[in-house]
Amino acid sequence: MVKKNTCVFISGRGSNLKNLINKSRDYNFPIKIALVISNNANALGLLHAKKNNIPYLIINTNKTCFENIVLNEIKKYKISLVCLAGYMKIISKNFIINLKKKMINIHPTLLPKFKGLNTYKRIIDKKEIKTGCTVHFVNEKLDGGKKIIQKSFFISKNDNIKSLQEKTQKLEYKAFPEAIIQIYRYN
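-> structure tokens emitted (187 positions)
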């Protein structure tokens, strides 16, 4: 199997990055993490790239400059898929159009509910009974692209922001790889 070169964008701990790196070691998994990009020099997730000898870039500059650098790197590494994994910057419409590649994001709610930030607090404030995660294609609308996969769980009365985050992340570790497999199943 020829694996598709993939770039993962991160801003923080990189737990989804770590999971994707581990999954990519499976012969039948369709991607290889070829590049990691972060807007945060202190992102702990960069350690996963270093530990696994994956090239990485830290780019924390103005948006236009950032996007030009990233587009050049994506071309250089022959990237076929971009995964946003806890990347805390909004991607511009211009970047999405110029990329002309598949770009997916993982979001910690059942979209279309609770787009954007502070999702766990909003879920608790609205007294939701069910939540989960969504992997979706990225388009010009914030968290508005076509859904690839959703996974959900029921919220208990004892759940808080921390427990919701932990439960959601466990689902993300299943959903992200499944979505990637689904994307490449018929290609």
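The mean pLDDT is 93.
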